[in-house]
Design a protein that fits this description.
The protein is α/β, with parallel strands linked by helices. The chain is built from 18 helices and 22 strands. It has four domains: about 1-95 and about 290-305, Rossmann fold, CATH 3.40.50; about 100-280, NAD(P)-binding Rossmann-like Domain (Rossmann fold); about 325-450, 60s Ribosomal Protein L30, Chain: A; about 455-530, ACT domain (Alpha-Beta Plaits). The protein is globular and about 80 Å long. The two termini are about 40 Å apart.
Length: about 525
């Protein structure tokens, strides 16, 4: 295999490739676009950082290319969709910097607690003052870790080494994972209420943006310390500034910002606040991290040669064309089922089971399992989850994955059932295809019949006369049109589950109003990707 390196990459990190006799490695830096076009056709893999744009024209010249390896986290310079269409795998190195980020979290936290930055400036300015810089210890403090992934897990372990009590919030991590780390899983409300120090380590997405807002600061301990070495925007920065200015927050340490470089007045005031220790996104800036990302992508290339799973692929490889054509409609179905139930299921799953009944069970259903698993996990992890790495990510999260096939099916010619097990019990969703259209035919033990839509509302309540009308009235008053409604219930005037498809989303206040009107046992707005 011929591998081309076009950007500065740690030579030490490339050593695994240099040691493999099957690989011919060429380092050619500073190539012009025209030179790269002439060169790339001879190579099976390319290793880049941010200096090389791997776009459509380059990929068109890459007639033998199998892998694009980005030695870093970001893939903004790679046209992933175009590469996928050409059957080229794209890998990155999302975890080469995890230790670096964890250590930087501890560094800025300790600097804040011991007043290192201000004491350093004072002494260099010619003063000898000690009393103003009396600090605080971590020992005995309660540290709340939000997000117990690879970085958050390391921060938890390091915090325990300082003899702090560690509590953690991560609804997508199994209890086994928390037990292995020696921390106690609690809801976000308990993190806010009981923590002396709160540190966030989640990806930034629709669910985590402004995860910590003004109302959360109100419920925190006086003098709480806030740390963000994950992504800017997870903590609402305007609320963060207000907390510092009011004295509610004793101090904060930030490495990341919602805008980089920061330009807004809020960010400028936040950075300038004397209670802040700040750094310009240095979490991954260590020599070791730069080496690690090179090692990681190099090992992915070796995994490809050896036919092993590639844990950091960000796109989907090609399956057998005949099998893929047959599976495509079912892949859409299982993906929608995974996406749907991921927004409804209880936290901390320990096991996920996929059952295939009917004609579909005659085929290899592994592509469906990883497709559904990727949809289930993708919005809740620090990395891109896809059909290549879904099982590996699930294993890392401590989730057991089961696949069962049975050619017999009582009610449908084909039926796919997904079961999630957690400490709160089991949650079931089942679906099938009607003339190629995905339909959900079972949720828990309620028989249903609906097609997943972009905006939906799921309500579980005790069925009583007039409640459907109340729901329709409240939704109408909010200016939202109901596209369809499906009611499933066990018995007349018994427990019921209603699923509404809506033309536009409902705001939180309207959802809460519906919950109160029908005395809902459970209510949740669901957003499905187009």
């Amino acid at each position: 295999m011929k591998v081309l390196v076009t950007d500065e990459v740690s030579q030490e990190g490339l050593q695994p490739l240099l040691n493999d006799s099957r690989i011919e490695l060429d380092v050619k830096l500073g190539l012009s676009v025209e030179e790269l076009y002439k060169t790339i056709g001879a190579y099976d893999a390319i290793i880049t950082r941010s200096g090389t744009r791997v776009d459509g024209p380059l990929l068109d010249h890459a007639t033998n290319l199998k892998i694009v390896a980005r030695a870093g986290v970001g893939i903004d310079n790679v046209d992933v969709e175009y590469a996928s269409n050409k059957g080229i795998i794209v890998v990155n190195a999302p975890f080469g910097n995890v230790n670096s980020a964890a250590e930087h979290t501890m560094a800025i936290l300790l600097s804040l607690c011991r007043n290192v930055t201000v004491a350093n400036a004072s002494l260099k300015g010619g003063d000898w003052k000690r009393a103003p810089f009396t600090g605080s210890e971590l020992k005995g403090k309660t540290i709340g870790v939000i997000g117990l992934g690879k970085v958050g897990g390391r921060v938890a372990l390091r915090s325990k080494a300082f003899e702090a009590e560690v509590i953690a919030c991560d609804p997508y991590i199994s209890e086994k994972r928390a037990d292995d780390l020696g921390v106690r899983l609690v809801p976000l409300e308990d993190i806010v209420r009981f923590s002396d120090i709160i540190t966030v380590h989640t990806p930034l997405n629709q669910e985590t943006r402004d995860l910590i807002r003004a109302e959360h600061f109100e419920g925190m301990k006086d003098g709480v310390i806030i740390v963000n070495c994950a992504r800017g925007g997870i903590i609402n920065e305007e609320a963060m500034l207000a907390g510092l200015e009011s004295g509610k927050v004793g101090g904060a340490a930030f490495d990341v910002w919602s805008e980089e470089p920061p330009a807004t007045e809020v960010l400028k005031k936040l950075i300038a606040h004397p209670g802040m220790v700040v750094t310009p996104h240095l979490g991954a800036n260590t020599y070791e991290a730069q080496k690690n990302v090179a090692v990681d992508v190099g090992l992915e290339i070796i995994n490809y040669l050896d036919g092993r799973p590639m844990g950091n692929a960000v796109n989907i490889p090609k399956f057998d064309p005949d099998l893929m054509e047959h599976m495509k409609p079912f892949m859409v179905l299982v993906s929608q089922m995974g996406e749907f139930i991921s927004q409804l299921a209880p936290p901390n799953p320990s096991k996920v089971s996929f059952s295939y009944n009917g004609k579909i069970a005659r085929y290899d259903c592994a592509p469906l399992t990883v497709c559904g698993l990727a949809a289930l996990l993708n919005r809740h992890t620090e990395q891109e989850v896809n059909m290549v790495n879904a099982r590996l990510v699930g294993k890392t999260m401590g989730i057991a994955i089961e696949e069962v096939r049975n050619t017999e099916s009582e009610s449908f010619s084909n039926l796919v059932t997904l079961v999630i097990e957690s400490p709160e019990g089991k949650r079931t969703i089942a679906g099938t295809l009607f003339e190629g259209i995905p339909k959900i035919v079972k949720m828990r033990d309620f028989m249903t019949d609906f097609q997943p839509e972009e905006h939906m509302l799921v309500i579980n309540y005790d069925d009583k006369p007039g409640l459907i009308g109340k729901i329709g009235t409240i939704v109408g008053e909010a200016g939202v049109n109901i596209g369809s409604m499906n009611l499933g219930r066990r018995a007349k005037a018994g427990e019921a589950m209603v699923v509404l498809s809506l033309d536009s989303p409902l705001d939180e206040a309207t959802v809460e109003k519906i919950a109160q009107a029908v005395q809902a046992r459970f209510i949740k707005a669901v957003h499905m990707p187009r």
